Amino acid sequence: FDLVTALSVWTHFQENDARFYLQEVARVLRPGGRAMITMFILDDDYDHALKNGGPPAGARWTFGAPCLGSSQWLHPEWATTPEQAIGITSSGLSSLVDAAGLTLRETHSGTWKNRNGFFFQDALVFERPL
Asked: What three-state secondary structure class fits 60?
């Protein structure tokens, strides 16, 4: 495929599922093909929002509880099951991308981080290398 999209899908995957399905995305993309996937990325923008005026988009979007003991995949304390909302640390994202053999081309912070943006979640563009 030339393009794969997944909006508000990876925000519900625990680590093993996220890895499996991103590898499947890589498998079905032609060389040079791209994927646009949204996630909650717990990066510097997220940390900055937490330190300056409280949690991003309210306390609902503070990710502090580990998913199945992972230090890279986290969910909010309110979630009765982790799959209700899962965020991934920057290092978890790097590991995820490397394991899939993709290149992360663009990252657009979501409005959930109290930033201007075009989507609530973070939008990422991946590419399968030539």
From this structure: helix
Q: Judge whether 22 and 96 are in contact, CB under 8 Å.
A: yes
Mention every residue, 6+ apart, whose C-beta is less than 8 A from residue 65: 74, 75, 76, 77, 79, 82
The C-alpha atoms of residue 59 and residue 73 are separated, in whole angstroms, by: 18
Residue of 15, 7, 39 lying closest to 96 (CA atoms): 15
- Kindly report the pTM of this predicted structure: 0.93
Q: Are 47 and 64 in contact (CB under 8 A)?
A: no
Distance separating alpha carbons of residues 73 and 93, to the nearest angstrom: 9
**75-107 pLDDT per residue, tens:** 999 999 999 999 999 999 999 999 999 999 999
Q: 114 vs 34, which has greater pLDDT?
A: 34
Cβ neighbours for 70, distance < 8 A, ≥ 6 positions apart = 14, 15, 92
Residue type, 125: V
The answer to whether the CB of 42 falls within 8 A of the CB of 74 is: yes
